[in-house]
Specification:
Elements lengths: L9 H10 L3 H4 L19 H45 L4 H14 L5 E7 L12 E2 L1 H8 L8 E5 L2 H8 L7 E6 L6 E8 L12 H21 L1
Parallel strand pairs: 1-2
Antiparallel strand pairs: 1-5, 3-4, 4-5
Helix pairs in contact: 3-7
Length: 227
């Protein structure tokens, strides 16, 4: 006769065993009531099943550790490259050379397919290549919505924007558009890719934010010295 008709829930049994890890040691007779089978249906001992579980858990932990190490190495390599880029930016004393050197570094060292630094100003003001200039009226109309919520946009870009930045025959589908923090001139740093899922909105922008800050400061310094 059963005193209670209530049956235990699986999570209650699990919690009990967690709180009493030596239960099967103190009550070895309970093991004979366990039914643990392989998917093939063959019986397997409790110890064997426990070893199998531990191996599986260790494999998952090992995989996570390898991923962590790989990410750490990738971040270390990226940090070294960004440090080199910052050195180039701070040691370049000509505005046009600064812009060109930055673009080349992104392409050759950081694996960027396309890179452009553009200003929103009148052509004659800062004596830079005319191809770097977008008239303020066009820039406001094109980029105001992009920079309404963020200073760095990542993701798909329209054909209109891709053509404006990279030329009419471009096949750029995704990009990064970073707003310069210059006090002297409005502008953008743009990276483009013809491949999809290259620039996800979830990507970390820590290093890019830092690079844009330093680049903007140097642009202001060179413009001020020129004046």
């Amino acid at each position: 006769m059963k005193l209670f008709s209530k049956s235990l829930k699986p999570e209650e049994v699990i919690n009990f065993l967690k709180e009493n890890p030596e239960f099967f040691i103190d009550h070895p007779e309970a093991i004979e009531y366990l039914e643990i089978k392989h998917e093939s249906g063959e019986a397997v001992s409790f110890i064997e099943k426990q070893v199998e579980f531990i191996k599986s858990k260790n494999l998952a932990t090992s995989t996570q550790l390898k991923e962590f190490i790989l990410n750490a190495k990738a971040n270390e390599l990226l940090f070294t490259k960004v440090k080199n880029l910052i050195s180039i930016i701070l040691n370049t004393e000509d505005l046009e050379n600064l812009l060109t050197a930055t673009e080349i570094f992104f392409i050759e060292e950081l694996g960027t397919e396309k890179c452009k630094l553009l200003f929103f100003t009148q052509e004659e003001l800062y004596r830079v290549n005319a191809k770097r200039i977008i008239e303020p009226e066009i820039a406001t109309k094109t980029f105001s919505k992009i920079f309404k919520e963020t200073d760095i946009f990542l993701g798909k870009i329209s054909n209109e924007i891709a053509s404006l930045i990279f030329g009419a025959k471009t096949n750029i589908r995704e990009g990064v558009i970073g707003k310069l923090n210059s006090e002297k001139i409005a502008g953008i740093l743009v990276m483009g890719s013809s491949k999809e899922e290259k620039y996800s909105p979830e990507n970390d922008t820590l290093f890019l934010n830092f690079t844009i800050e330093v680049l903007s400061h140097q642009i202001d310094r060179l413009i001020e010295n020129r004046d």
